[in-house]
Input
Amino acid sequence: MTLNAQAPAPNAPSGALNIKALAPLMGAEIFDLDLSQPLDADLVADINDAFLAHHVLVFRDQSLPKDAQVAFSENFGELESHVHRLRSGEKRPALHVVNNLDENGMPTERPRTTGNYFWHTDKSYHAVPSLATLLYAVELPPSGGDTLFANTKRGYETLSAETKQQIADLRVEHSWEASRLNTGNTPATEAEKRDRPPVVHPLVRTHPNTGAKTLYVGMHTSHILDMPEDKSRALLDMLVDHTTKPELVYRHQWRMGDLVMWDNRCLLHRADKNYDMAAQRRLLHRTVIKGSLPF
Output
């Protein structure tokens, strides 16, 4: 991948990405691509290289209809289904809306679900969890409504040798039911429990592309296997607190037209309530790419 200070024409051939790092541990912005148009295979490969290097990619100045976001997302893998259902009980489509709106379309401090305001990695309650998530800004508050990202690779690297040894072989149960309980949201329905029964993943997982060790924690965790409940929760909470220290976090301040794509295999993320949720609308379109079995 070539870093080029000169702005190429939209969707120029491979080797001409106009990219700029946003922070030392993660984050880069990419300019002068029109993601509503098809991308050639070499350009997709360059984007994927940048994704592995920077973990969070911000594509600026996009105008993306829903079908175009779906098409762009499918360049990187199969789209993931969603366990959380619509008010009608139907399953959500592959692209769905993240917002702070009530059933009448008005902004509220208490939207139907608030799980996105807690540290998590998307869909760790799936047997085969997510590779990447893509969010496209449709409506934003005048300021705030940021998304924060924490680097779980660096979180693991900065643990003591003793802690690394302690957690090396531990396995953790994740579930949609635990996620709802951990965040104080409406309990999981019986249909949702059937759709996503509990799964077990390693506490320390290996990134399948880079080989890096990362912590696999967050709000979807229930407990560590074969450990007393109080000790299990204390350890899981400590690891989240350690990984989300300010020096390990990148804060994304949204602009209209941003499409943000991030790697769920080495990051935690959460939305920030740093705006007037009761008066200001925040609406984004979300797609999620299916990953591989953690190991």
